[in-house]
Amino acid sequence: MIRACVENDLLDIYNIVNDAAHAYRGVIPADCWREPYMPSEELRHEVAEGVQFLGYELKGRLIAVMGLQTKEQVALIRHAYVRTEYRNQGIGGQLLAELRTRTTQPLLVGTWAAARWAVAFYEKHAFHVVPATAKAKLLRKYWSISKRQIETSVVLCEGDPSRWRTLL
């Protein structure tokens, strides 16, 4: 069952993010890895900044989350994670499909360039990698991330491969 997450879900969201993010260890630049990957204070800050999480619940247990954040004329997919033991079962795709029903704005997602599985997931779902020449501009405009993360990330845009041009 997919549902909106509430404040009582924050501990589960924290655990899901930090479990699933272990896939990044040794893949993303070492200077970008930390333990925990997302501290609880950062998670609370993200929610305070408008990230609204959808959760996938199975037998009363939250096993996956995907956030949506509206910024100006776009909607950002934020913090999409599935517990390790439930990966590759279509849960992320179901969350993405539900998330799409909750906005009419163009969808953007940023992820680590080295996380090829994440990039491939979004490409499978009709997202296109934005050219490197525009990536940094989009990341600075819509995200609050470090210069290092900008250097090592990609942005994907839903739908028409040239749609990103209207978002700069």
Using the coordinates above, name the CATH class. Alpha Beta
Strand content: 25-35%
**How many domains, in number, for the residues?**
1
- One letter per element, helices H and strands E, the order comes to EHHEEEHEHEHHE
Apparent shape: globular
CATH architecture name: 3-Layer(aba) Sandwich
Distance between the termini: 36 Å
The secondary-structure class comes to: alpha+beta
The helix fraction, in percent, is: 25-40%
Structure overview:
With 168 residues, the protein is α+β, with helices and mostly antiparallel strands. The chain has a single domain (2-167), classed as Gcn5-related N-acetyltransferase (GNAT) (Aminopeptidase), CATH 3.40.630.30. It is built from six helices and seven strands; from the N terminus they run E-H-H-E-E-E-H-E-H-E-H-H-E. Strands 1-2-3-4-5-7-6 form a seven-stranded mixed sheet, sandwiched between helices. A hairpin with a 2-residue loop joins strand 2 and strand 3.
